[in-house]
Amino acid sequence: MKRRGLLLSMLLLVVAIIFIITACSNSDQKKDNSKEEETNTEEASDNNEAEENEDSNHEEEKEQVVKQVEVEYEINENSSVIPVNDADENVVLLTIDDAPDKYALEMANTLKDLDANAIFFVNGHFLNTDEQKETLKKIHEMGFEIGNHTMTHANLTKIDEQTQRQEIVSLSDLIEEVIGERPKFFRAPHGANTDYSRELVKKEKMILMNWTYGYDYFAPYQDAEKLKKAMISGEGPEVGEEYSLLKPGANLLMHDREWTNAAMADIVIGLRDKGYTMVNPRAIKTIE
Ligand SMILES: [Zn+2]
Questions:
Q1: Alpha helices in the chain (DSSP H)
Q2: Staple partner for 224: which of 33, 76, 163, 263, CB 3.0–4.6 Å?
Q3: Which of 276, 146, 278 lies closest to 206, judged by CA?
Q4: How much is the mean pLDDT over the chain?
Q5: 244 part of a folded domain
Q6: For 26-49, what is each residue's pLDDT tens digit?
Q7: Which of 72, 38, 97, 71 is nearest to 253 (CA)?
Q8: Is the pTM of this model over 0.85?
């Protein structure tokens, strides 16, 4: 009996040793794998730097750069930008609607010079000619996000479901034809959605947003100086906004308009002076 007991405990010991060895080598393997991943990422970013230095036009490489932006924010139900981790909350999102009409490219250049990011929400009726399509392509290639603002700027609450679908999906098709990717963000004209459009936008894998403030479409602010003041302060007393709407995560609505174009640089500089960063739309969570 004693001997059998000894044998049994020796056997258990051997099994235990084998188990420990296997576990160790497994975790080693895991470590190796993650090391390998790290190396790959380093390699990838080295490649991208080289790519940028060469000023190459390889679309695939560009896409890799785009994908590397870490998701740090999401759009909440009030269209505000909220950090999903410990990212800086003092950000604002710049959006420019009804593009690319007369001033979008100039606005994009101004923003680019200031290294400020934005979403350009485009309308299908501004994408009729090759020249207009070329303008959109340029804005996209400058690094700006392109959003869907419907085909003809229709009020979605006043048209039937089939027409709503046409307004939304046909523009995503057209945008894809021009820039090579489908839009990931949607904003309805006048901010007016229906249950159907909300569902459809989700199915089309776009994040729906309105805005938290904007003044350039109100008559009293169709002037660069007045607009600049209103956008930087967040206050629009001449249209009843006595208190500032500027706060962390504010979603700023602007348009492809003369006075907005004229005020663009000062708005960015003024917001930065107040401690805000223009959020990179690519750091905002989208639907995969
Ligand atoms: Zn609009």
A1: 2-54, 59-67, 104-113, 130-141, 161-179, 195-203, 224-233, 258-273
A2: 263
A3: 146
A4: 86
A5: yes
A6: 444 433 444 334 434 444 444 444
A7: 97
A8: no
- Could you tell me the distance, in angstroms and rounded to a whole number, from the CA of residue 112 to the centre of ligand 1? 23
102 CA to centre of ligand 1 in angstroms: 14
**284 CA distance to ligand 1 centroid (A)?**
22
Cα–Cα distance between 211 and 253 in angstroms, integer? 6
127 and 140 assigned to the same domain? yes
Least confident of 13-17, 215-219, 237-241, 275-279: 13-17
Kindly state whether residues 220 and 79 are assigned to the same domain: yes
Q: Is the pLDDT at 149 greater than 50, yes or no? A: yes
3-state secondary structure of 88: coil
Alpha helices by DSSP H, 55-129 = 59-67, 104-113
Q: What is the rounded CA–CA span in Å between residue 106 and residue 263?
A: 12
- Report if residue 288 sits inside a domain: no
User: Does the pLDDT at position 17 exceed 70?
Assistant: no
CA of 194 relative to ligand 1 center, distance in Å: 16
Q: Domain holding 123: CATH number?
A: 3.20.20.370
pLDDT at 4: 60
Q: For CA atoms 284, 285, 286, 288, give the dihedral sign.
A: positive
- 């990422």: which residue's tokens? 41
Ligand 1 centre to CA of 155 (Å) is: 10
Question: CB-based burial of residue 217 (10 Å sphere; 0-12 exposed, 13-18 middle, 19+ buried)?
Answer: middle
Tell me if residue 281 falls in helix, strand or coil: helix
- List Cβ<8 Å contacts ≥24 apart for 80-88: 80/212, 80/249, 80/250, 80/251, 81/249, 81/250, 81/251, 81/279, 81/284, 82/249, 84/285, 87/283, 88/277
